[in-house]
Amino acid sequence: MRLENRVAVVTGGGRGIGRAIAMTFAREGAAVLVAARTASEIENVICDIEAGGGRGIGIPVDLSRREEISQFINKVSSHFPAVDILVNNAGVGSSQSPKPIIRFDDDFWDLSLFVNLTVPYLLMKAFLPKMIEQKWGRIINISSSGGKKGFESASAYCASKHGLIGLTRSAALDLATSGVRVNAICPGPVRTAMLAKRIQFEAERRGISVAEVEKSKAPIQRLLEPEEVAALAVYLASEEADGVTGQAMNVCGGSMTF
C-alpha cells in the first residue's frame, strides 16, 4: 500500500500502459481517476479496480480537443480538491500515419505535438498549484525510447517525446525545492495496440514476419508487458523516490543503454 491516501490521475488509462498503471496504483492504495476517450474501456478499468477492492472514477475526454481540457480539469476538481499524482500517459503514436519527413502530414504533426507535449504541459500547470501548496506531488510523464533516439517515419512522435523529456527536466528544476518530483518513463517495445500497428508496418516494410520483428525489438528478444512499466511508475509515485527528480528512466529490455 505504498500509495495509500493518495489521489492519482492517469490519462490514456483505458488500455495498455495507462490501464496497467491505473490498476497497479489502485492495488497500492491510491484513489485513481482514469481518463480516456473510450467510455467502455474506462468502465472496464473501473470495474476491475473495484473488483480488486480499489477506488476508481472514470472521466471520458478527448484530450486532442483543447476545449475539452478545461472541462476535464473542472470535473477532476469536482471529485478531488487536490491531485497528488499526475501520470501523463495519453499519446498519439507514429503508426497512425508513418511517413518519411519529406512526405509527412502537417495535420498529423500538429496533432502529435499537441497531445504528446502540449497536453502534459497544460495538465501540469493545472494540477501543480495544489501540489506546491501541500508540499508534495508526483508528476510522471510517459515518454518513449523514441524520446532519446529517432525512428524511421516517426518525425512527430520522436520530436514530441524528446520534447516531453525536456519539459520533464526543466519542470523538475523549477520545482526542486517544492516537494514535487517530476520524472519521465521511457518505455521500449511494450505489448500495446499502438505498438502492434507499428510492428505490422515494420514487418511489411522489411519483408519479415511480425514474430521476427517482435524478437528483434530488444536484446531480451521479447516485448515488454505494460505491468513492467507500471512497476516503475509506482516507485516514482511513492515516498521512496523522493530523491529522484528530472530523470528519464528506461524500461526497454536492453534496447537503450543511455
Specify the CATH class of the largest domain: Alpha Beta
Widest β-sheet, arrangement of strands: 3-2-1-4-5-6-7
How many structural domains? 2
The helical percent reads: 40-55%
Using DSSP, what is the number of strands?
A: 7
CATH superfamily of the largest domain: NAD(P)-binding Rossmann-like Domain
Let me know the largest β-sheet: 7 strands, parallel
* Helical segment count: 8
Task: Describe the model.
The protein has 258 residues and is α/β, with parallel strands linked by helices. It folds into two domains: 7-188 and 226-243, Rossmann fold (3-Layer(aba) Sandwich), CATH 3.40.50.720; 191-223, no CATH class. It is built from eight helices and seven strands; from the N terminus they run E-H-E-H-E-H-E-H-E-H-E-H-H-H-E. It has a seven-stranded parallel β-sheet with strand order 3-2-1-4-5-6-7, sandwiched between helices. Helix 4 (106-134) links the parallel strand 4 (85-88) and strand 5. Helix 1 (16-27) packs across helix 8, helix 4 runs parallel beside helix 5 and helix 6 (193-206) crosses helix 7 (210-216). The chain is globular and about 55 Å long. The two termini are 32 Å apart. The mean pLDDT is 97.
